[in-house]
Every structure is written in C-alpha cells, then in structure tokens.
Specification:
About 55% of the residues lie in helices and about 10% in strands. By secondary structure, it is an alpha/beta fold. The chain has two domains: about 110 residues, Rossmann fold; about 200 residues, Zinc Finger, Delta Prime, domain 3 (Up-down Bundle). Helix 2 links the parallel strand 2 and strand 3. Helix 10 packs across helix 11 and helix 13 packs antiparallel against helix 14.
Amino acid sequence: MQVVYLLLGNEQGLKEAYLKELLIKMNAFKSKVSVTKIFLSELSAVGFAEKLFSNSFFEKKEIFIVYESELLKAGKDLELVCNAILKSNNKTVIFVSNSNTCSIDFKNKLKILKKVFYEISDDDKFTFVRRNFFNLNIKITDSAISLMLLMLNSDTKILKFYIDSFALFAKNNTIDEEDITSWISFIRFENTFSLFNSILKKDMTHSLIKIKSILDQGEDLLNVLMSLIWQFKRLLKVQIDYSACGSLQSALNKNKIFFSLNKIYRVGVKNYSISEIKIVLKILYKFDLYSRIYSKNIHQNLSYFLIFSILKLNDNFLMQYSAESKFSF
C-alpha cells in the first residue's frame, strides 16, 4: 500500500526538524529528485491533482510537501487527490498542517503515517533555551530565560533564531534581563508581546501594522489570540490587586511582573479599567471562536476587525458587552 505522510501541530521548530530528517532519508537533496512545495490556499485540489498526474521529464522521483493541508476537507477533493496519488508511483506526498487535527482520510486506500507536534510546555521551553545557550558556551540567568519566553511567546523555531543571534555578542558575558529586553527589541520580528504593547498604548496604526507582520510571518491567528487572552488576564489580575491594595508596585510584584516590563503594565493599568479589560477578553474569546470556524483566507481581515473592536470601545459597544460573561476570568 502506498504511503503518505501527515505532519500536524503548531510546534514549528520540532516539526521542521523532523521534516528535514524525513527528506534526508528520502534522498531529497540528491540529483534526480524534485521537491515541490504547495500551499492549498493558493492552489485548488484540482490543481494539485493535475500536478500529481503530470510527469517530470528530468527527475526520477518527485516529493510534494503540501502545506495548509487542513484546507483539504471536501470528500470529492479527498477522493480526487487520493486517486491521483494512487496513479503516481514515483511521487511521495507529505501533508503539513499547523493544526493538531486534520480531516484527511483516504478510506484505507493509502497508508497514512501521522505525527503530531504539540506545543511543548513552558518547562520544556525553559530547558530547551538553557540547553541551547549551554551548547553555545553562553551563560544566562534563569530570570533572563523566563523573560525571553514571556516576550517571545514562541515555539522552538523562533526561540532558536534568537538564541543563535545572542551568540554574536555574548560569548564572554552572562546574559541578564536587561540584555534580553534590549536585544530582542533591537532585532525582533513583531510578536504577540509587541502587539500587546501597542494595544495597551491604544496605538491603532502600530497595532494594525504589527498584527499584519505577525500573520505574514506565518503565525496562526488562533495562537495570537491565545497569547493576548493570557496577557490580558494577567493585566486584569494586576488591575484588581491594585484596586484592592492601592499600591500599583505591590500589585505588579504580587503577580511577578518582570521589572523591565513594569512600564508597559503601568500604561495598561492607566488606559484600561477592570470593566474594559473584561470587555476586551470577551472580544478575544469571540474572535477565538471566529478563527476556528472561518477559513484562514479571511484571518487577515478578521485580525484587523479584532484590533478595531478592541481599540474602538465606543458607548454602544460597551453596552452590547456589559452583560455578565459566561467566561470566568
């Protein structure tokens, strides 16, 4: 029975490393082997099947890496692709998706080798960062690692990029919190933490630019929403504790907000009341639902609507969401 591969999950670093090992085993980097990347948001199932039916005059073997495979849902599309693969003896297909689940099912006509790369725990990320710095002979404090994980909120792929970048200047130094803040701010791609920063400042222009940049980098909107929900929940706890004790610094300390992040949290406390933070959380939960039920083709537009909804909390909007939420914050 012919074999197809199905690589799932949002842990990009480990998934890409596994894919590379798989391609090496298939001799994909040798001559007479063609490797083609396909994105199903850009090519229909019919177009993909046509590529499978066509034969190369120059390569003895062809490998297709099919990204966004979660978009392959319709039964007729699956049947079309399945038949095309069955008639393509010299072609290997690797389906890749950032989702943990996928509806691809070829009804036992093809053998599916599936591997899911779930997001690793914070403890495992901490160990991953410390081990990689150790391998580079670079010393780093535990608090600096924790701050790095908070600011980047990323998988191992992005973490490894920043770890390697530190190797350019930190060989003989111990990296601390200040180094993390200044270096990441200098070289970073936009991420959910920098987006959170702009939202707290109520900066519409930079919030829109940053969320577009984040999605353009390949980040999933659902991951962005989950990160923002976590960060606004943290801000809510700070605001509640501040209201109870009257000391903002005590509230920041109680919630273990890094000293280097005190400034932005102070901005958030100033710009968002407890009731407004709860409304923002309700909005984020609604868009979490939207991102799950609507096609990724409209996620960019959804993201713009999200930013507009958060930063334009007019009176009517406040009244609409003032009812008690079913969510527990």
